[in-house]
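TL;DR need C-alpha cells for one chain.
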Amino acid sequence: MKNGILAIIPARGGSKGIPHKNLRPLAGMPLIVHTIEQARNAKQVNRVIVSTDDFEIASVSKSFGAEVIMRPAEISRDNSTSEAAILHVLDKLKLGEAYEPKLVVFLQATSPCRNPEGIDNAILTLVDNNADSCFSAAAEHFTGRWRIGPDACAKPVNFALDNRPMRQNYPIEYLENGSIYVFKPWVLHKNKTRLAGKIAIYPMGWLESLQIDLPEDIELFEQVIHMRKSKIYSQADRTALSRIRLLVIDFDGVMTDNKTLVSQEGNESVFCHRGDGLGLSHLKTTGIEILVLSTETNPVVSARCRKLQIECIQSCENKLSVLKEIAAQRSLDQHEIAYIGNDINDIECMRWVKLPIAPSDAVTAILEIARFITPQPGGSGVVQQVANWILSTQD
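>> reply
TL;DR here they are.
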C-alpha cells in the first residue's frame, strides 16, 4: 500500500488559545516536529506535506524533512477548516504534478503522543476493513455524561438517574481523539468532510490520545513524552526492538561519562561501566551484532572494545557513510539497526536508522530525535539498559 499514501499536516501560524503553538518547544523541539517525525517514520507513508501560511513554520518543517505547500490567507483564518487546507494541497498536487494519492493521512500537530506504528495501523485498519475513511479514537466504557440545562440544573445525558448502568454492562463507545484520520481522496472531494462512506475506527490508548489545548498542557506533555522515551511503553516499541540485528554504539558520552583523565605525561583514560560489558555479553548470545562507531582517535576506544570482544571502527570521519556501507554489506535495512548516540556528530546516523537511542544527558538536538532515552546518563550503564530492553523482547 505504501506507494501513493500522503500525510498532510495543517499548521496555521495564528492561534488564539496558544500563540504560535505549532512552534512552541515541547520536549526539546517545536511541537509540529513531533508529528513530522512520526509521519516520516511511518512505514506505510511515503510523502509528508505541511500546509501552512507561516514562513517560520515552513522553514522549520523543511529542515525536518517535510515538504511544504503555502496556504492562501482566505483559508488560513480562525474559522477556516482543516478540510479546506487539505483540499488545497490535493488540488495543488494534481495541477502541478498530476499527482493523486491513493490515501490521505490527516495528522494534527496538537496530538504529539501518537507513534509511527499507530499511523501505520490506522492505515491498515482502513485497508483490512475495506473502508473509505478511518479515524483514531479512545475506547470508553460507561462514563456518566451531564449537561447544564437552561434552568442551570445538571441533567444526565446518557443514562437515567434511576437506572445507572454497571460499567461492564454498558456497550463500549469510542471517543474521537483528533489524532489520525485516513481517507480515500474521493471522500473529501465529494463530501467536503474527512469521514464518509464506510467508516472504520482505529482504537488508541488514552495516553496516545491526549491533545494539547491549553498553555498549561505543555508541561504535562513534557513529562509524558520523557516518560515514554525512558522505557519500553508500548507493544509497538517491543516490536521495533525485537527486529534489531545490529546495535551501533558511539563511545564517548555513551560508554563513558564524556570526561577524560589526563596525566602529566599527556596520557588519557576514561571511566566505563562494568554493567555495559555484562549486557553486551548477554546480547551477543542472541546473535545480534554489536559495533562501536567513533570519531575518537584515542586508542582507549579500541582497547575497551577488545576487552569486550566487540567490533570497533574508530577515527571515523563520516559515520553515516560507513554505517550505510556496513548495512549494505550485511543486507540490513534501517529498521534492523539501533544507534546509541549523544552528540552532534551522531545526528545523521540517528536520523537514518529507525531506532535512535540516547542517554539522558545527551545534547538537546539528540534528545529531540531519540525514540528512546535511557534513565541513565552516559557512562552509567546506558548500554546495559538498552541490552536489557532488547533482551526483554526475546522472551
